[in-house]
Amino acid sequence: MKVVKIGRHSIELSNMHKIIFPQDKITKGEIVDYYYRIAKVMVPHMKGHLISMQRFPNGIDKEGFYQKEAGSYFPSWIPLKAVKKEESSELVHYVVCNNTATLVYLANQLCLTPHLWLSKSDKLHYPDRMIFDLDPSGKEFSYVIDAAKILKDVLEAHKLVPFVMTTGSRGLHVVVPLKRTKKFDYVRSFARHIASEMAKDDPKRFTVEVRKEKRNGRVFIDYLRNGFGATGVAPYAIRPKKGAPVAAPLEWDQVKKGLSSQQYNIKNIFKRISQHGDPWKHINKHAKTLKKID
């Protein structure tokens, strides 16, 4: 075990040689190092947002789990937000990651993938993000690329500014920064309308059908994440898949033939950032208020 000091905080790191990605021989130490190095661009996207922790303490070839409640062993300097469970007076204490030290602590807990609430801790019922998860039903990723481009045009027609990223898993996320003036029900209704219209206009390629067996190879335009307590994968988060792919924010001109949802990983993402910076760096400056859809 070794102790590292990040800012004013000391963190005990353990089992750094433990293999977490067996096929790639990627160790826990490499994961912790990745999150330390990526923190400068990643933490600004996490600040204020509650986290659901996807943990793999025994490696990705063993079953992982989601953890919402911060353990009693979490250090007191990590901010928490207490939220009442539905239909219960019981509280869940969620982690809020506002600095590099917290991100490194989570990595040491083998929280491989942080998932973020779409609202911030100071205004939980008013999301600052609207999200569309474009999920392929088959192997035809070109449909996902087309869906993202069409969705961009539709959102821009509503005077919104969409951003896009690979999920590091199967599809793409299109994310819209919002001014915090509407509650989740309003935002979800807006997103449902947009998704349903796209599916109606091109029913051969796009669908809002929740049941996988009824999608018939079409791209599922998932608007359902836009609800209270729902989450989206954090930008630059590692996914538990071969090669350690990451969720990577993109420039829109990268959304073209040849793009893969797992194109970026813990090794090649830094070269891209050094050459082009963070495409989402100024995302909050483009926050808009949702207008009523007729």
- The level of helicity is 10-25%
Order of helices and strands: EEEEHEEEEHEEHEEHEEEEH
In terms of per-residue confidence, which ranges show pLDDT below 50 for 5 or more consecutive residues? none
Number of strands: 16
Given the structure, what is the number of helices?
5
Question: What is the first-to-last residue Cα distance?
Answer: 60 Å
Q: Overall mean pLDDT score?
A: 95
Main sheet characteristics: 6 strands, antiparallel
Percentage of residues in DSSP E strands: 25-35%
Q: What spatial form do the alpha-carbon principal axes imply? A: globular
Radius of gyration computed on alpha carbons: 19 Å
Give structural attributes.
294 residues; alpha+beta; six-stranded antiparallel beta sheet; six-stranded mixed beta sheet; 5 helices; 26% strand
Characterization of the model:
By secondary structure, the chain is α+β, with helices and mostly antiparallel strands. Helix content is 24%, strand content 26%. The protein contains 5 helices and 16 strands. Strands 5, 6, 7, 8, 9 and 15 form a 6-stranded antiparallel beta sheet that branches. Strands 13-14-10-12-11-16 form a 6-stranded mixed beta sheet, covered by helices on one side. The protein has a two-stranded antiparallel ribbon with strand order 1-2. Helix 1 packs antiparallel against helix 2 (100-108).
